[in-house]
Design goal:
- The chain has 655 residues and is an alpha+beta fold.
- Among the domains are: 351 residues, no CATH class; 38 residues, no CATH class.
- Helix content is 47%, strand content 18%.
- It contains 16 helices and 17 strands.
- The strands form six sheets. Strands 4, 5, 6, 7, 8 and 9 form a six-stranded antiparallel β-sheet that branches.
- Strand 6 and strand 7 form a beta hairpin.
Length: 655
């Protein structure tokens, strides 16, 4: 009995067939763009013709410097991420969310991924970011990460017109892997992969979709040998992303609102009496369903609770179709002409230094010796007398317009690409004044800045999806650490830390709870572009002189190799200065206190002297009183004696 086919597997395979025609049209041009960028600019037929003419298949690559310069200008710095809370209650939490995005960028090696995606966008027309959950990271707890998806692996719905593919019905990521490679990527699916077989008629991803031909360069698709055993058999891994909508209800209670899924709402309806009506608003919430097949077997499936696809394109020249165009497509004609002109000029120079010689038969004894000696400077050549002297046939001079046209073609490539010599550090044609040079450089960057706006839009979409995935994935306490590039500083942030519990131990409240709130992500305009460090430093110095910024801000903008040590020493000096100032203030306060105590002591001494004087005065007063009392007694005795004496005289007179 034949095994029943999986409907999801069949759908993925049928969609791949439907999406292939549009994808192959783009891939053909993308491969040619990549070949021209990487110096493969002559076909095999053209090289054979040049070999017959004795000309070199010379490549003067003017496309690679243009692409490389744009890549350097567009990826000079890390994207400036800013998270804004939609509700006032989540404003403080937005800083934590911003740190979470910085952490995910750090653990994903985001700078490298960013350069790879932008390079694909410039060369092939479109590059892809890929947001995913690495289930094997952090000892099985998993991490949200940002990855790179090869453009030739991604198949887009041909009806999509949105530059970010948000209107696509499906997006496929297809990889042709050997069974051993698939087991290495999905170790937990090894048994299932052993039973999987490549489906007949299915076109794979970047591995071996296109047949090589004699005109293709070495930078084409890989060619796999025929399978020698089960582990080398090629299996098509198709990961299908489908946008869907789940039903939710906004249940309005007395003083609160609660969002419920269909299942939760059904349980809620059963829990309330039939005669009680609770207002509920039905709405549809977008989600992304993921289904993966390996050959003819279903590998896994799950639902991502995010609003848009986790595969985010960075489009270059938007055509209104799912696939964009790259830079080399507009430069190939000029590049071909430059190569042919240089090949012609080199051939002419070679012919001029090794001209043709007409020799009359019999005029030279040994023609081979004549040929070897003729090209030597100052050589003496013998010929037979009576015969014609050998004649040199000089080539016709090349027209002067050929050289000027070559220079014009180089300028045309720079003009078409929007990259000029001044932007690459050439002083040719630069103004004499510093300010005029800066102004011209700013004007010259306008077209690059226009492309940066599109890249920043894609980065904003990427970080929005990554933040949604982080809110859904990180549910337990976690410490997120970021180490600086120089390894000198370490930042750490704890999220989802429990702070309140119920009586049975369940978590009631968390500190830095990532699952709370809704946020918008904004990429600072021009944050990834290079800045003129001299002009920027001059501006900071002016602001420092005006007192707007401090010296630390100026040092941070400089490129001194030991600026961190200087900042650290200045911090230590600042701390020591503050301590000295504090000690000086304490010393001044002590001196004031001593002066006050001294004055108080003087007042106390005066009080003591006064008390002592009062004591002496009391003694004098007491003595005076005693003397007065003694004197009073003496007077009284004298008075008594006088009275008695008078009485005795009066008595003797009468007698």
């Amino acid at each position: 009995m034949a095994e029943k086919k999986n409907k999801n597997v069949e759908l993925s395979q049928q969609l791949l067939l439907d999406y292939t025609a549009e994808h192959l049209n783009w891939r053909k041009q993308a491969k040619m763009n990549r070949d021209y960028t990487l110096n493969a600019q002559w076909t095999a037929d053209e090289q054979a013709v040049l070999d017959e003419r004795g000309q070199a298949a010379l490549v003067i690559n003017r496309i690679f410097p243009v692409v490389d310069q744009k890549l350097a200008m567009m990826t000079a710095r890390k994207p400036g991420i800013r998270v804004l809370a939609r509700g006032d209650e989540d404003v403080k939490q937005s800083k934590v969310m911003q740190y979470v995005l910085d952490y995910i960028w750090y653990i994903s090696d985001g700078d490298v991924i960013y350069k790879m995606v932008v390079n694909d966008s410039l060369v092939t027309g479109v590059g892809y970011f890929y947001a995913y959950i690495d289930t094997y990271a952090d000892k099985g707890l998993g991490e949200v990460k940002i990855g790179y998806a090869h453009g030739e692996d991604v198949f887009i719905d041909p009806n999509s017109r949105d530059p970010l593919h948000r209107d696509a019905q499906h997006i496929l990521v297809v990889k042709n892997l050997s069974r051993a490679q698939a087991k290495n990527i999905y170790p937990d699916k090894a048994r299932l992969l052993d039973n999987a077989h490549g489906a007949e008629g299915v076109i794979g991803g970047a591995s071996n979709n296109l047949q090589k031909n004699e005109n293709q360069s070495i930078f084409g698709d890989s060619v796999y040998p025929q399978a020698a055993d089960d582990d080398t058999e090629i299996i098509s891994i198709i990961e299908r992303y489908t946008k869907a909508y789940d039903v939710y209800y906004r249940v309005i209670m007395e003083d609160t609102e609660e969002i419920m899924s269909q299942e939760e709402y059904n349980d809620f309806k059963k829990s309330i009496p039939d005669d009680v009506e609770v207002p509920a608003l039905k709405f549809y919430k977008p989600v992304v369903r993921v289904f993966c097949s390996a050959g003819d077997k279903e590998l896994y499936s799950y639902t991502l609770n995010i609003t848009d696809y986790p595969i985010i394109p960075v489009s270059n020249v938007i055509t209104g179709m799912p696939y964009s165009m790259g830079e080399p497509a507009f430069l190939m004609g000029q590049q071909d002409m430059i190569n042919k002109f240089y090949s012609l000029m080199i051939s002419h120079a070679t012919t001029s230094t090794n001209p043709r010689v007409f020799v009359e038969r019999g005029s030279v004894e040994d023609i081979d010796e004549f040929r070897s000696v003729y090209s030597q400077p100052g050589a003496i050549l013998e010929y037979n007398q009576g015969t014609q002297i050998p004649q040199t046939a000089q080539p016709l001079p090349l027209p002067g317009a050929l050289y000027s046209m070559t220079a014009d073609l180089k300028n045309e490539i720079e003009y078409t690409a929007g990259i000029f010599p001044l932007q690459q550090g050439s002083s040719m044609g630069a103004p004499q004044t510093y300010s005029a040079t800066l102004a011209i450089e700013e004007f010259g960057n306008r077209r690059v800045n226009l492309k940066l706006r599109g890249v920043e839009r894609s980065l904003g979409q990427l970080f929005t999806i990554v933040l949604q995935m982080a809110q859904n994935h990180y549910q337990i306490q976690k410490v997120m650490r970021i180490i600086s590039d120089d390894g000198q500083s370490v930042q750490a942030q704890t999220v989802n830390q429990p702070v309140r519990f119920t009586e049975d131990g369940a978590v009631l409240e968390r500190f830095n709870d990532l699952s709370i709130g809704e946020y918008d992500v904004i990429i600072a305009a021009g944050s990834t572009a290079p800045s003129n460090r001299w002009a920027e430093m001059e501006e900071y110095l002016k602001m420092y002189q005006a007192g707007i910024v401090d010296d630390i801000a100026v040092l941070n903008k400089s490129e001194f190799p030991d600026k961190d040590d200087i900042i650290q020493r200045k911090a230590m000096l600042s701390q020591a200065t503050q301590q000295i100032q504090q000690l000086n203030k304490a010393l001044e306060a002590s001196i004031k206190q001593i002066d006050q105590l001294r004055k108080k002591n003087q007042n106390l001494e005066m009080d003591v002297e006064l008390e002592r004087f009062k004591g002496n005065l009391d003694a004098i007063l007491a003595k005076t009183k005693a003397d007065a009392a003694a004197a009073t007694r003496n007077v009284e005795q004298v008075m008594k004696y006088a009275v008695k004496k008078k009485q005795s005289q009066d008595t003797s007179g009468q007698g």
